[in-house]
Structures are given as structure tokens and as C-alpha cells.
Design a protein that fits this description.
By secondary structure, the chain is α/β, with parallel strands linked by helices. Strand 9, helix 7 and strand 10 form a beta-alpha-beta unit. 46% of the residues are buried. Helices cover 38% and strands 17% of the residues. The longest helix is centred in the N-terminal third of the chain and has 21 residues. The strands form 4 sheets. Strands 2, 3, 4, 9, 10 and 11 form a 6-stranded parallel beta sheet that branches. A two-stranded antiparallel sheet has the order 1-12. It is globular and about 45 Å long. Helix 2 runs parallel beside helix 8, helix 5 packs across helix 6 and helix 7 runs parallel beside helix 8. The structure holds zinc ion. The site of zinc ion (ZN) has 5 residues, from loops. Zinc ion (ZN) binds next to loops.
């Protein structure tokens, strides 16, 4: 009996060491679009709508200045922001809606916390997050999404492979415009205004009370003044690392 218990304990310990030791590090993929070369350059603006409300400062500026954007929406955000969705749908030439997951749960198939958010934690939960996000978009009558971006934009390599198998490209970025919407207006403006030909910018459109939103608007206007063109992910040749687009 005692021997058996000792044996089981040894097996349990070796399993714990094996899974702990083999947990692959998370990746934060980079995405670029094909540079324009001939003109003043082009960038792709991607905005996450994780949950919460809508930053109408940004939404109005996009409409008024005819700046196209790819909006990554969650099922949670879609439910609570019908007015903003209606504005986006009224301007199909500007807005492309893509999949940010059903419940804003990081697409990581092992249990852990990323920026304080609990990961999906299993392959099944990653699948559920991706598929429920796509279903929520389909439910609003939007075209089927082609791109996925997980909450926190960090992934386990196994999750990336699963999401690719489902047919989605994974949207990394090359410029972190607003630091999760936590940066000040001035620093956000500086980061976005510094975008170069071929860059993919990430920022947030769901934090109307944060100073970063004002910086997003100012940074975009600075790019527009320089003659930079904006393209949506659907209209650009996006290429990412870590197997996210190929
Ligand atoms: Zn998010």
C-alpha cells in the first residue's frame, strides 16, 4: 500500500514536471501589410472592441475623415453597442468587422493568466471562444469574419495552429498605438503618428473615458495630413510571423 502510494506520487510529480517543462512560451505575433512604395505609404488601422462601450470620439473621426478601419469585436461588445454597430454598417466602405472572440478570453490552451485575464485553458475552450465570436458576428448579419485576434493578442503556438485550421488568419500588429488604451493622449498620438508604410496599428475603440482615445484621433489625423492611406485587412496583403497568416 505504502509502496503504491509512493509510486503514484512519483508518477504525479513526473507528469507535473513534464507539463510544466513543456508549456511552450506564449507569442505576440507581428503583422505587416505590403508597403505602398509608390505613394506616401499606407497603414492598416485595427481597433479592438473588447467589451464595454464605444469611444464615439474615434468612431466620429473615422466617419468624418473617411478613414477605413478593421474593428475586432467580441460577442459581449456586439450585444451592448447596437447604435455603434448600426453606424459601422451604414458605412460598409469604411468598416470591416472581424472576430475578437465570444467572451474576450485569451486564446491560450493551457491554464494561466495574461495581464490578469484567465486564459481559455484548454483546446476546447479556445475553439469555443473563436467559434462563438464568429457566430456572434454572423448573428448581426455581418459577412463571415476572416481574421481573428484573441484577447490580449497573445497566443500559445498550439492555439495558433487550431485557429488557422478553423480557417481564420490571426491579426498581429506592428505598432502598439495605445498600450491597451492605458497610455496618455500625447504618447498615443506620438506612437500612431510615427507609423510607417506597411505598419499595422492596434488601438482600442471601447474606452470612451480614457485619454488614449483622444490620442488615437490626433495620431490618425497626423497620418492623414502626411498623405498616408488607410487600408483594411481584407484589402491588404497581410503577412505575419509565428504561422499566423501562411
Ligand atoms: Zn481586447
Amino acid at each position: 500500500m505504502r509502496l503504491l502510494r509512493k509510486y503514484l506520487w512519483a508518477v504525479a510529480m513526473s507528469l507535473a514536471v513534464a507539463t510544466g517543462g513543456h508549456a511552450a512560451p506564449l507569442v505576440e505575433p507581428i503583422l505587416h501589410i505590403k508597403p505602398d512604395a509608390s505613394g506616401a505609404g499606407r497603414v492598416a488601422l485595427t481597433l479592438d472592441a473588447c467589451g464595454g462601450r464605444t469611444d464615439t470620439r474615434i468612431l466620429s473621426a473615422l466617419v468624418e475623415n473617411k478613414i477605413p478601419a478593421t474593428i475586432f469585436v467580441t460577442g459581449i461588445w456586439l450585444k451592448r453597442n447596437a447604435a455603434a454597430v448600426a453606424i459601422m454598417r451604414a458605412h460598409p466602405e469604411l468598416f470591416e468587422l472581424e472576430n475578437h472572440g465570444g467572451r474576450h478570453i485569451p486564446a491560450v490552451d493551457t491554464p494561466q493568466k495574461i495581464y490578469g485575464i484567465r486564459s481559455a485553458g484548454s483546446p476546447q475552450a479556445v475553439l469555443a471562444e473563436v467559434e462563438s465570436g464568429a457566430a456572434a458576428l454572423a448573428g448581426t448579419g455581418e459577412p463571415a469574419p476572416k481574421w481573428f485576434r484573441g484577447a490580449t493578442a497573445e497566443y500559445s503556438p498550439a492555439a495558433i495552429a487550431m485557429i488557422r485550421k478553423l480557417g481564420f488568419k490571426i491579426a498581429g500588429f506592428s505598432i502598439n498605438g495605445d498600450g491597451g488604451s492605458l497610455l496618455g493622449a500625447r504618447e498615443t498620438t506620438r506612437r500612431i503618428a510615427a507609423a510607417k508604410d506597411g505598419d499595422v496599428i492596434i488601438a482600442h475603440i471601447n474606452q470612451p473615458t480614457h485619454a488614449a482615445g483622444e490620442g488615437v484621433v490626433q495620431g490618425l489625423l497626423a497620418l492623414k495630413d502626411k498623405g498616408m492611406t488607410f487600408v483594411r485587412l481584407d484589402d491588404a496583403d497581410g503577412f505575419g510571423n509565428n504561422g499566423t497568416t501562411d
